[in-house]
Design brief:
The complex is a heterodimer of chains A (about 450) and B (about 280).
Chain A lengths: L1 H19 L20 H12 L4 H7 L5 E6 L3 H17 L5 E6 L3 H14 L5 E4 L1 H4 L10 H6 L9 H6 L8 E14 H6 L8 H15 L4 E2 L3 H11 L5 E2 L2 E2 L4 H15 L3 E2 L7 H6 L5 E5 L13 E4 L9 E10 L4 H14 L2 H11 L6 H5 L1 H9 L1 H8 L4 E2 L7 H17 L4 H16 L2
Helix pairs in contact in A: 4-15, 11-19, 12-20, 19-20
Chain B lengths: L1 H36 L4 H4 L14 H9 L2 H32 L5 H11 L4 H14 L6 H5 L6 H12 L3 H9 L4 H12 L1 H17 L2 H5 L9 H5 L3 E2 L2 E2 L1 H31 L6
Antiparallel strand pairs in B: 1-2
Helix pairs in contact in B: 1-14, 3-14, 4-8, 4-11, 11-14
The chains are: A alpha/beta (about 450), B mainly alpha (about 280).
Chain lengths: ~450, ~280
Amino acid sequence: MKLKKGLAVALTATMAFSTLTGCSNNGSNNETTTNGTTPSETTSVAESTSATETTGNAVVADNGIEPCTIEFWHAMSNKQEEELTALTDKFNAENEYGITVNLTNQGAYKDLSSKLTANAAADTLPDLAQAYNNWLSAYSDKLVHLDDFVANDFDNWDDIVAGYRDENSQFGFISGVPFNKSTYVLFYNKTMFDELGLSAPLTWDELLEVAKVIKDEKGIEAIGWDDLAGMFQAMLVQNGCGYIDETGALFDNEKGLETVEYIMNLYNNGYARLVGEDKYFSNVISNQLIASYVGSSTGASYITADGWELGVAPLVSNTEMAANAAGTNIVMFSQDTNKQKAAWEYLKFLTSAESTTEWAMATGYLPVRTSAYESETYQTFMATDPTSVAAYSQSAYFISQPAFEGSYDVMTAISNTLEEQILNEADAQTTLDALVKAVNDILQK
Amino acid sequence: MSKKRKIMNIIATVLKYAILILGALFTLMPFLWMIISSLKTPAEITAIPPKLLPSVPQWSNYAEAWKAAPFPRYFLNTIIVTIFSTIGVLATAILSAFAFSRLNFPGKKLVFSLFLATLMIPGEMLIITNFITITKLKWIDTYQAMIVPYMSNVFYIYLLTQFFSQVPDSLYLAAKVDKCSDFKFMMKIMVPMNKSAITTIAILNIIGCWNSFLWPLLVTNDRNMRVISNGLVRFQTEAGSDYQLIMAASTIMVMPIIIVYLFLRKYIIEGVTQSGLKS
């Protein structure tokens, strides 16, 4: 009897152990983490670096870097990954310090983002990672401040496209370097536009006119947006209106109402449509079921222009010009001074005019430097690639997604709310109210 | 009259089969569509109206999908993880179900309620804490990181406890009279009598393991430790997806599961038809 009880207790104890391990974590903070330092030391490391490097580039080069391995987590696949691997192999073979960068693919963006969140909680972040700023707002204290590196050991930060510099300073310090950058452009069916005597719309008014002609003549919608929240942000800015900040919605006003009115007018009149289950309009335009759409400039390769010609134009503008920049930056988490220096060597290499040009031409992303855009190699490439021409023309007025706690959820909420209101064929005021509520519910709780 | 009955019989049979065939078609359609799509060109796959068959089957999709990721290695990893976690889940489920249904010990009801209470915690909430545990154990990039957290499952324990409870007391008491130990009774009587329930649990667990994505991704960084579902995301980017390659890779991925099903089919059907035992 005693034995039986013993067995039963042992069994249940085993069970309890294996099922409840999830609850047993108490985050023993006194344990030394793999990185060896606590996050609060990040700034002091950066500061001490600056102290020894105040005299400029030469000192850093002389400082020497011990051979080490840098972990870089990314979300690139297919030919993008091939090109990243090619560039990294080149760096590994050619750098004079014996630095090896180890690339790890962590799935798609969403997966990489989950992976970073989990590793931030466990304090096991990699040395480098691709990231959107709004993924990082919850653990931005773990980011290495790159200001001193940029000030002392970078070939001309001002050469980096202004929009990207702003984006990488969103946290109040330089948090990363731009890498795989794209922008939203207008893809349109040039054959159809030519046939109707239309040219790509440049302003809100022109878009309305074009849309009416297409609707009347062809019976299809003129335009669609892959990313509704991105569309909304860009259109607000184009109309001289604010988007969101930490305190909530900035568009609960006359200008905001005007913008929403314009958007709902497009949808309610059948001039624009939602992407729905297709997810991306590339399929829809390939089948000539829509005349144009706004999507990522890297999406060009997913459009099959069979029997028609693809045109690419910059986004429409109203009183102001604005185009969404998309794509990630590379941020640094390593806590070790030597690894930080080594990782910085790699970042300098990736953002060099030569690398960024090669990267852009191979992948369809955009160069991150003005000098790369202006290089002869890239200019020759642009002559054969209309997408890069449209993208380049927008590079002076890129806007990026806000990055503070909750901003990522706001993006999803705006997309969902807009979609719902469009399906309801709601009027402008109802839609605006719903949007303001959706945003403020998240940011003002 | 017998002729009339014969005709009626034939009509009934025809109707029965017609309904069955229709049902089978409905069930098979997604699989067929997946296989057909895996042989299309990108243009054909997104064509509207959809084309039923590709004009020229693109077998090259399979070759392309196969070489996009180290699939042989992924298969091996998935099989290892699936086998060990299923063995683990069966061992823990059978032992604890036996304890809960047959044995008496202090706090049994409380422990059982605690177990059931954990079912209320969404899996997403456990991910981060489990992940931290795994990192503290330095189990990143190991098989045990993917296996151990899934070696027990409260739902299966609950399910099996219900099945075990239905076995009449008289069998247990008779075994006791014959000086049969609890463990022997469990292995010789309980397990064989509930073979179909146990097989069902095994199948559910195998399918779950085969499809799991986020956890294996979280606990591995080494490309050679990834599992097969991680290979599928390689065809998706921020701007679009190569559906024909996803479909080809998905077909490769589900084939083993279908084969497992074909082999275990007998037990699944047994589970449905097995008659109850009278006390």
